[in-house]
Design goal:
By secondary structure, the protein is an alpha+beta fold. Helix content is 40%, strand content 20%.
């Protein structure tokens, strides 16, 4: 979800959703990753966090263009007209170490 294009992407997503339709956005939790990076001493741990922050960059498109945390993502969705916005930690992938967030909202 590139920062500069995010509002346009979400406004268009809202436009094409049916009334009552749901959007789900999953992104790395930039704030949590930064806090974890500062708190860790091992270089291997820091390298994994850097990969989460910037993307793996192994293939074309595997990089992150912006950073989001719970409050900035919620604010963005609300400013684009979405309702009932909720943001939670993504606990679905062990390798993510709970470092991603998932926002859900209704048109």
């Amino acid at each position: 979800l590139p920062g500069r294009k995010a509002p346009a992407v979400l406004f268009e997503s809202r436009r094409v959703l049916c009334d009552g339709g749901q959007i789900r956005v999953a992104v790395p939790d930039f704030l949590k990753m930064c806090n974890e990076y500062v708190a860790r001493d091992l270089l291997e741990s820091k390298a994994l966090l850097m990969r989460g922050i910037y993307g793996s960059q192994v293939h074309e498109g595997e990089y992150h263009k912006s950073g989001w945390d719970s409050s900035t993502l919620k604010n963005l969705l609300e400013s684009c007209g979405f309702k009932n916005v909720s943001v939670r930690q993504d606990t679905g992938r062990e390798e993510a170490e709970n470092l991603c967030i998932v926002a859900e909202a209704i048109k």
